[in-house]
Amino acid sequence: MHELSVMAYMLERVEGHAERLGATKVIAINLVVGERSSFVDDSLLFYFEMLTPGTRAEGALLNLRRTLMRCHCPPCDTDFHPTGADFRCPRCDTVGQVTDDGTELLIESLEVVT
Amino acid sequence: MSGPTVKIVNIVESLLINNDLAAGRNQRRLAEAGVLTINVMAAPGAGKTSLIVRTLEALRDQARVGVIEGDIAGSVDTERVLAAGARDAVQINTGGNCHLEANMVDRALTELDLSQLDLLLLENVGNLVCPTHWALGEHLKLCLVGAAEGDDKPVKYPEMFAVSDVIVLNKIDLIDHVDFNREFFLESVRALNPGVPVFEVSCRTGAGIAEWAAWLLAQRAALGGAAATTEVA
Asked: What are the boundaries of each domain within chain B?
């Protein structure tokens, strides 16, 4: 349920940007949400719909670009997506090292009417 | 006259930047006061309050420790930590929220006399997902996990183990009764966070608590500041 707080914080920020840009309406909000955030798309959209009425973002599209968690396998020198059972390389069974991929939690851009 | 125009504006900032900014203000305030602050995160029932009580008992004559208790409701834990020797304790009821946020800690800090503290333990709401994203102003993030919860917690909740500065494995007295594979647990922790210190303790028997408390004191000394040399009366 942390999606509620996250959407409330995001919306506060988006309203601030809309004000600064002199926008009358926000038509799209483009987010990057990494797998490691454990955010559930449907929950984000649900709370977004709940919180936006009466704001400049009412009716806006919430676009979510997902990034995946990756591990690096040094012997194979490749990155792999962990299976969810362990962090071992599917090719050689070496324990991989998690990279920074999939940690993003960003407002990438806004589409606004001015 | 031109009509309305549509613009795409690049922003590229954290969704939670307002919380991050508030956390930064908390951290500066705590660092200036020389109060090493630990964000204690764990699932419900892992033993957060028990670890805090054990830590208070172990540091009773060596450091002045304050506690901020985050809970969805109630004040039972605050009474427990004060009885165990906390110099001061403040309860935050999140009113259903699944994690503490920096502005809640900001309000709680106004109720504490930071000049009287060396350490501050922030007990987060029991949850292995939500607290990872919400910086509070802590110097260190602690992930506490109980052996009875299973050795797969790092695989299931990778972000919690990846962002933590120290991991405490509690209930090691149960380890042979609950099929906890220590090697698999540690392998997963290392994949996510190589080099993170892992302490194995039992809050029930007291095993491992002295080592954990000594490490915590060393972190406090490393923070420096005026209070670092304060003798506990």
From this structure: 17-222
Instruction: Copy the structure tokens of residue B116.
Output: 């009287």
Which value does ipTM take for this structure?
0.91
**Residue A99 sits at the chain B interface (C-beta within 8 Å):** no
Find out whether A105 and B7 touch, Cβ atoms under 8 Å: no
Among partner residues A5, A96, A114, which is closest to B5 by beta-carbon distance?
A114
Q: How confident is the model at residue B96 (pLDDT cuts 50, 70, 90)?
A: confident
Among residues B164, B214, B221, B218, the alpha carbon closest in space to that of B188 is found at B164
**Domains of chain A, first to last:** 2-72+102-113 (3.30.2320.50)
Taking an 8 Å cut-off on Cβ atoms, the answer to whether B188 and A114 are in contact is no
Q: Which residues of B touch A112 (CB under 8 A)?
A: 6-7, 9
CA distance B9 to A109: 5
> How far apart are the C-alpha atoms of B25 and A82, rounded to whole Å?
37
Q: What is the CATH number of domain B17-222?
A: 3.40.50.300
Q: Give chain B positions within 8 Å (CB) of A110.
A: 8-9, 11
User: Would you give the DSSP letter of residue B232?
Assistant: P
Tokens, residue B22: 């508030």
Check pLDDT > 60 for residue B192.
yes
A13-67 pLDDT, tens digit per residue, is: 999 999 999 999 999 999 999 999 989 999 999 999 999 999 999 999 999 999 9
